[in-house]
Amino acid sequence: MATVSAVPTTKISGGSFLIEERVPDDVFTPEDFTDQHLLIAQTTEEFANKEVVPNIERMEHKEFAVNRELVKKAGELGLSGVDIPEVYGGMEMDKVTSAIIADRLAKYGGFSTTWGAHTCIGTLPIVYFGTEEQKQKYLPGLASGDTVGAYALSESSSGSDALNCRARATLSPDGKHYLLNGEKMWITNAGFADLFIVFAKVDGEKFTAFIVERKFPGFAVGAEEHKMGIRGSSTCPLILTDCQVPVGNVLGEIGKGHHIAFNVLNVGRFKLGAGCVGSARDCIEKAVAYAKQRKAFGKVIADFGLIREKLANMAAGIFTGEAMAYRTVGMMDVAIAQLGESHTDMTQVRKVIDEYAIECSILKVWGSEFINHVVDEMVQIYGGYGFVEEYPAERAYRDARINRIFEGTNEINRLVITGFLLKRAMSGQLPLMAVIKKMMDEVLSGVRDEGPLGLLAEERKLVATAKKIGLFAAGVATQKYMQAIQDQQEIMGAIANMVIETYAMESAVLRAEKLTMRNGEPHAAYAGAMTRVYMAGAIERIESAARMVIAACAEGDMLRSQMAILRRLCKYEPWNTVALRQTIAQKVIETGKYVIA
Questions:
Q1: For residue 181, is it left (φ>0), alpha (ψ between -120 and 50) or beta?
Q2: For residue range 336-349, what is the model confidence (pLDDT) as tens digits?
Q3: Which of 16, 428, 488, 513 is the most buried (most CB within 10 A)?
Q4: Per-residue pLDDT tens digits for 285-304
Q5: Selected catalytic residue, list 31, 359, 394, 407
Q6: Does one domain contain both 575 and 434?
Q7: In the structure, how many helices (H) and strands (E) does the chain have?
Q8: Buried (b) or exposed (e) across 77-93, using 16+ Cβ within 10 A?
């Protein structure tokens, strides 16, 4: 048996995975959970199963007193104060714990939405940007669940374009209040929240955040929205009519509200990604249970190859999603730990999280699209019953759709991924352009790199191939458009897709390699099967995106030349994914759930 791999201690720069090779010791995986992590995971899961799940129907019928009661119970268990400093009544736990709670709580979309809005975007603006007085006044209640938080950014005319908001704030004649006027739309928890982070433009120009209490004069809540999904969460508009907000409730600096709006979303994104993986784990358990008892043509449908294929793909995706999520938050925790005595300085912690904005957006996009695939396949496994409300597939299908809109649409997040990479490259933070140039010189010269050796050599070579394809396509695009590439959204989106899949592939390989080093190859073979199944599809998607980028950037002889290079880069031997999926599906069916061994 190989030497046991360690918990990572080396700080890694955000976005650097594209241009630097990683080893298993560099990444945190679920297998690195401490006893405390495992205890919190168990506590959260028990809370979800015993408190949330039995109340689903009541929340679906908008008995929001239940939501408030559950937020309070979660607060009593410490689940609501995980990111709040101890001095203000919180638990001040690591980011791995934050992700674990979001993951294990994701049994029901309605309450996950309530809890997420409260603990993340409804609370963290005060944690990261509040004054000492604001923190002392509001954070203890938010941590305990006695106060429920909400976040009011969107408007009917400015969803993704948040800085184009129309809500205005004007200083009162006596200088004691800001008078807020305007309307906010699609505000989660609005029907019962006590505290709102509201964004408005001071004097119609300076985008600013305010802490607004429900009881403030001029504050009103509109009617509940009737939504396609997450019906167990409250969603209402806010109406602000000369709403009197004390000047002491300005959050952060006047005119700097965009720092609050966008920085806090990074936490929301990694938690949403982790929650999507947790939801998928719950869905596969329900899907396999149904497949094992539903009979057709004289046998249970779990025996059919095409059903087993679906279950195997779900499991492979969950394995990969877990690897991505905990790798990301693990990097954050290492960087926070290296702050030393400053690790309790929330400004410094916020800057650390911002360092991994690319990875947070990757998690959000990947997780929300993966769970959409899972619930779609879940409905298919249930067949006609999947379309009926009394079965779990129907609600899961409806609830999952919002995730691609939450925390910035997936389109916006794809632009964030590519845009941030290019921005860091241009500023010198990330030597991306130098690596692209070197790689393109090697490709044009015909130099072939034999690639990595050792454990999971084939898988690691395919990761290296994925990076080369992505860098080559990005190089072609940047040569063609230079700075104007920001205006080529389809190309930016395709580059983001390659980046996302590369991160997913590498995360899965590193996790599988770490498992192999700890447990020996026979024991880790199942993890290797899930890794190969995911990678087989991912490399095809990367190649397809690269083809699109190259075709959009070249024509004639240049196009033919670049496509010839791409074909050379894309040479790899396929795995027998039919046999691999059969192995995975058999384990899922035997155990009745997703497992890793």
A1: beta
A2: 999 987 777 888 99
A3: 513
A4: 999 999 999 999 999 999 99
A5: 407
A6: yes
A7: 19, 10
A8: bbbbbbbbbeebbbbbb
C-alpha of 398 from chain center: 19
What's the pLDDT score for residue 161? 72
Segments in 428-520 forming alpha helices (H): 432-445, 457-481, 489-519
Residue-number span of the structural domain to which 212 is assigned: 150-254
| 174 and 89 share one domain | no
- Per residue in 213-242, pLDDT (tens digit) is 999 999 999 999 999 999 999 999 999 999
Whole-model pTM: value is: 0.95
Angle between helices 257-293 and 95-104 (to 10 degrees): 40
d(CA 529, CA 537): 13
Are the CB atoms for 81 and 91 separated by under 8 Å?
yes
Q: 3-state DSSP call for residue 460?
A: helix
> How would you classify the pairing of strands 250-251 and 299-300?
unpaired
Q: Please choose, from the candidates 337, 357, 163, the residue with its C-alpha nearest in 3D space to the C-alpha of residue 263.
A: 357
Largest CA distance in the chain: 81
- Is residue 316 one of the residues assigned to a domain? yes
Other beta carbons less than 10 A from residue 442's beta carbon = 13
**Which amino acid, 438?**
K
- Clarify whether residues 268 and 386 are in a common domain: yes
**Tokens coding 213:** 């209490």
**534-559 pLDDT per residue, tens:** 999 999 999 999 999 999 999 999 99
Q: What is the mean pLDDT of residues 23-32?
A: 95
Q: What are the φ/ψ torsions at residue 208 (nearest 5 degrees)? A: -140, 150
The domain boundary, picked from 410, 438, 461, lies at: 410
Average of pLDDT values for 243-247?
A: 98
pLDDT at 482: 87
- 595 inside domain: no
- 145-155 as b/e, with b when 16 or more CB fall inside 10 Å? bebbbbbbbbb
Domain count within the chain: 4
- Region at 536 (left for phi over 0; alpha for psi -120 to 50; beta for the rest): alpha
Q: Which residue in 275, 251, 246, 154 sits closest to 197, CA to CA?
A: 251
| Structure confidence at residue 250 as a pLDDT band (50, 70, 90) | very high
Ordered alpha helix ranges (H), 338-409 = 346-355, 357-382, 392-400
> What residue type is assigned to position 36 of the chain?
Q
Residue 278 one-letter amino acid: G
Boundary of a domain, candidates 220, 254, 288? 254
Q: Which of 195, 202, 205, 204 is nearest to 152 (CA)?
A: 195
